[in-house]
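Fold it.
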Amino acid sequence: MNTKALFFYLLFSGIFCHIQLFAQNLRYDHSKEIDVQVWEPFKIAFDNNDANTFISLHSDDILRITKWEIRKGADFKERILSSMGKENAIPRKIEFKFEHRIYSKDIAYEVGYYKITMNKDSESPKDVYGRFHIVLKRLDGVWKICQDWDVAEINGEKIGPKDYERL
């Protein structure tokens, strides 16, 4: 095979493989299913400080990463049980905007921004913003959060309303 023919063969083979991978990813759009199974109950549980529902949305081996710590599995769930549902909890509401949602058959990777509005009795509402990266897996037919990482700043810049609203 001459060099030109080999070049075109490799070029078209690469393009064909890339198109097939792209088409395969388009086949899997689990966003509606994940919204119903994870994000809608997540919002309700978070807003209502419902620890049991909240932890049920996470896998048993959840990996939760913040700028302060890494928690895994039972340790993460115990922390949620002890921190959510307190009688004097500040009323709050969480909202999401997704930037990237990428799926395969049984795994998903989602990136976006959140806004938490907290409303103390004597103060006007305060908004807190952040960016999240989530890995979800379908376990026994149900989507669960397996890895959750979020930050409040990127490259030293605090995430704020302009970041959230641009999506």
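The first helix runs from residue 3 to 27.
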